[in-house]
């Protein structure tokens, strides 16, 4: 149950709120405004409604830009699906609870008596806080806050969309065709602490093969496995190792001819004699070579 604080947020409460958010305000009045629910308007106070409006726009801009950069091969529909899953009222309410924003809300008398707050109220205050950070420090601090809070959500939604476990597929393939299992090695980490990119190489029998990138090691390993699987399949197809033969090369021709001979053999002709019909004579001629 959410137990909102019905008193004006004290300096200590604002300090705790800033620590939870991970951002220190130059103007704490902006944070106070973000924490002021619309129910206090009846008592002559200002509310966070305008900040909610701005925060929604900032949130959408940051997430859309991140998805646009992170998934260059995705269609508009793919990107829209991920955005709608990530930037939902449910997700924002969960984030607000994670940051304990309900403990710092300034509420009017009509809301103060509630034992718990509706998810919509929590989602709105999350948007208002994002707007307050944007107004206080600009787009970059707001972007860092949003991606720090939603980075795992984006990765989780993307993982659910992935139809294959490429690490498992690669292991099955290499054990069958190479007699060994792949290992993975982090070769580089780039980017700031709040948004690192991991570069991982898949190693097959001591040979470094495909490299994949991701926002965590698991994601990077999956990308490396996918690249390596495609690389090995192409190599094996070209060299004739895939499935024991190259595409288009027939199995042993003698066996195919023998099967054809049996299909036309009536079973009455003794060995060495011509079979009845043109096809039978042709097969006998081939077998005598």
Summarize the structure.
With 289 residues, this protein is mainly alpha-helical.
Secondary-structure map with pairings?
Elements: H1 11-21, H2 28-34, H3 49-70, H4 76-86, H5 89-98, H6 109-112, H7 119-137, H8 139-161, H9 166-177, E1 183-190, E2 197-204, E3 207-214, H10 217-239, H11 253-264, H12 278-287
What is the averaged pLDDT score? 79
**CATH fold name of the largest domain, please?**
Ribonuclease iii, N-terminal Endonuclease Domain, Chain A
Shape: elongated
Query: What is the CATH class name of the largest domain?
Result: Mainly Alpha
The CATH homologous superfamily name of the largest domain equals Ribonuclease III domain
Cα-atom radius of gyration: 33 Å
Number of beta strands: 3
Q: Give me the CATH architecture of the largest domain, please.
A: Orthogonal Bundle
Number of domains: 3
What is the terminal-to-terminal distance? 89 Å
Strand content: 5-15%
Helix and strand pattern = HHHHHHHHHEEEHHH
- Unreliable residue stretches: 3-9, 241-261, 263-275
Helix percentage: 55-70%
Going by helix content, strand content and strand pairing, the class is mainly alpha
Largest sheet: 3 strands, antiparallel
Helix count from the secondary structure assignment: 12
Attribute tags:
12 helices; elongated; Double Stranded RNA Binding Domain; mainly alpha; 289 residues; 8% strand; 3 domains
């Amino acid at each position: 149950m959410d137990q909102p604080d019905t008193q004006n947020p004290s300096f200590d409460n604002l300090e705790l709120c800033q620590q939870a958010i991970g951002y220190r305000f130059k103007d704490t009045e902006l944070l106070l405004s973000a924490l002021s629910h619309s129910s206090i308007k009846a008592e002559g106070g200002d509310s966070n409604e305008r900040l909610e409006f701005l925060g929604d726009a900032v949130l959408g801009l940051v997430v859309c830009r991140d998805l646009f950069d992170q998934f260059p091969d995705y269609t508009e529909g793919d990107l829209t699906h991920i955005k709608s899953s990530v930037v939902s009222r449910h997700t924002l309410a969960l984030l607000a609870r994670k940051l304990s924003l309900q403990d710092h809300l300034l509420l009017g008398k009509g809301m103060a008596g509630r034992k718990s707050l509706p998810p919509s109220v929590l989602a709105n205050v999350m948007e208002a806080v994002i707007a307050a950070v944007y107004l206080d420090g600009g787009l970059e601090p707001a972007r860092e806050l949003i991606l720090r809070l939603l980075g795992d959500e984006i990765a989780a939604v993307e993982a659910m969309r992935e139809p294959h476990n490429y690490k498992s597929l690669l292991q099955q393939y290499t054990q069958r065709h190479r007699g060994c299992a792949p290992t993975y090695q982090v070769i580089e980490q780039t980017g700031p602490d709040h948004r690192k990119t991991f570069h991982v190489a898949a190693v097959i029998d001591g040979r470094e093969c495909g490299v994949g990138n991701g926002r965590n090691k698991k994601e990077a390993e999956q990308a490396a496995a996918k690249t390596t699987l495609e690389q090995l399949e192409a190599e094996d197809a070209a060299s004739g190792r895939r499935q024991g033969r190259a595409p288009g090369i027939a199995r042993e021709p003698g066996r195919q001819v023998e099967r054809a001979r049996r299909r036309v053999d009536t079973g009455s002709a003794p060995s060495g004699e011509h079979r009845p019909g043109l096809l039978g004579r042709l097969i006998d001629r081939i077998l005598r070579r």
